[in-house]
TrEMBL record:
Top-level taxon in the UniProt lineage: Bacteria
Transmembrane segments: none
Pfam families: SpoVAD (PF07451)
The protein's name in its UniProt record: Stage V sporulation protein AD
SUPFAM superfamilies per UniProt: Thiolase-like (SSF53901)
Lineage of the organism: Bacteria, Bacillati, Bacillota, Clostridia, Lachnospirales
InterPro entries tied to this protein: SpoVAD (IPR010894), SpoVAD_sf (IPR038369), Thiolase-like (IPR016039)
Molecular function as annotated in GO: acyltransferase activity
Length: 337
């Protein structure tokens, strides 16, 4: 049976499942609306380490151990690991998962990395390359500020359009073993660049990519907005959401009732001073693990389109005045009785 759907999508003939997941988050996230839902939180955002980067690696390891432990699976029983982060050369991932000794594919999709990792894991299981794959990603407020903006000690003032990078890591065990959540299809995103250059307004930079992937998913699968219980973006935030709604309406779709954004639910905008909302690889990952998957498992949501979004910039490209393109990957998640 042909599994190719439209221009950018795959519909799995034999669907892989999300067997288990693990979520680790920092102190600010623990104080937010989802705080009690995370598997592990720590009031010390260094997580016992000496640097922000080591802390992020520790979070990744803990998230992987949690996901494996819930499924009673040993690291050597996992065929491949797909993981990535926001740091140069993916050091948070390579140092974080080293002790697990699982064959590794290092990824970079900015804040869309959880979607990229899940898509590749699902495709690998469906193709018969292994019974189990592990997808993991992370971000850390301290390491991201040092990498992309200013060290925390600089005390720079953030504009209202800026996001707050989530300190968190989410890991997902994907396999052929049946569970209550299956990945029935994926829509691989394209790079979309509207020429925006403001790194302090990533919602605007990523919204066009989110629109492009959502529209492509609906077209490729021949679906309407009503065919999904939720269409969930990664971290567009309050600014990006408004832009996404306008762009979608320009294409003839109204997703306002169905839409949810991870960056808008992970923090309390009024009490936590995160401006436009949360962002970072960990934002979509920990929200998926702690909040979205339980609702799908229980059958509260039958079908969800999960669309993590990423702004593809580096310190070099930004300092050279380049625009900030975006990318978004769509993962179709369905409830299984």
């Amino acid at each position: 049976m042909n599994q190719i759907r439209g221009a950018q999508s795959i519909s799995f003939e034999v669907s892989p499942y999300i067997i288990s997941s693990g979520s680790v988050a920092g102190s600010k996230e623990a104080e937010g609306p989802l705080g009690k839902l995370f598997d592990m939180t720590n009031q010390d955002d260094l997580f016992g380490a000496k640097t922000w980067e080591e802390a992020e690696s520790n979070m990744q390891k803990e998230a992987c151990v949690l996901a494996l432990g819930k499924a009673h699976v040993k690291p050597q029983e996992v065929r491949f690991l797909f993981g990535g982060d926001l740091l140069r050369q993916g050091v948070a991932t390579s140092m974080g998962v080293e002790s697990l000794q699982i064959p590794l594919f290092g990824l970079y999709g900015a804040c869309s990395t959880s979607g990229e990792a899940l898509a590749l894991s699902a495709m690998s299981v469906a193709a018969g390359y292994g019974e189990r794959m592990l997808a993991v990603t992370s971000s850390h407020f301290g390491s991201a500020e040092k990498e992309f903006r200013f060290p925390l000690g600089y005390a720079s003032q953030r504009p209202l359009s800026a996001h707050w990078t989530v300190t968190g890591s989410g890991a997902f065990l994907v396999g052929a073993e049946k569970s209550h959540v299956r990945i029935s299809g994926v829509t691989v995103g394209k790079i979309v660049d509207y020429g925006l250059k403001d790194s302090q307004n990533m919602g605007a930079c990523m919204a066009p990519a989110a629109m492009d992937t959502i529209v492509q998913n609906l077209e490729d699968f021949g679906r309407s907005v009503e065919d999904y219980d939720r269409i969930i973006t990664g971290d567009l935030g309050y600014v990006g959401q408004d832009i996404l709604f306008d762009l979608m309406q320009g294409k003839g779709y109204d997703i306002r009732i169905k839409h949810m954004d991870c960056g808008m639910v992970i923090f309390d905008q009024k009490s936590q001073d995160t401006h436009a909302g949360g962002s970072g690889c960990g934002c979509a990952a920990v929200t998926l693990s702690s909040y979205i998957l339980p609702k799908i498992r229980k059958g509260e949501w039958k079908r969800v389109l999960f669309v993590p979004t990423g702004a593809l910039l580096s310190t070099v490209s930004f300092n050279e005045g380049a625009s900030i393109p975006g990318i978004a990957h769509g993962i179709v998640l369905e409830h299984v009785n």
